[in-house]
Fold this protein.
Amino acid sequence: MERCPLENGNAAELVLAYGARTLDADQQVAFERHMLSCAGCRELAAAQQAVWSALDSWTPEPISSNFDEKLYQRILLEEQRPWWQRLLRADWSLRPAMPVAAACGVLIAAFLLRSPEPAPAPPSSSQPKLRIEQVERALDDIDMLKQLGVESPSRI
Ligand SMILES: [Zn+2]
């Protein structure tokens, strides 16, 4: 390299290519030979080498390499859920009341269905007593279900 690249304005480009190891073998040998006799290019190359070694020693944290990707995937997954799934996940307080109410409805329906008592003409004295017992049992069942619902709301 007869002329100093600092003189013809190619120094920055040349030193960058030298630091990145993208010079041809001939160019690299010529520049290294030139640096032996040129303090300016030596300093420039040394500064460039310092930058590259700093970049080499810097490695990104492995945990943060795909952290954003995972986060966005989760957000996307959450947004793709059906609205009713998000509602159920968001509002757990509504859930325990529903099965108790449904069970009470079934009990009342069963009581109404069997209350006409199609028995073949039993003695008239025992008929009202039987019905009262049935009503009391049904009411007790409903009370028990209500207590279960109140005392252990997280059961369902
Ligand atoms: Zn030079």
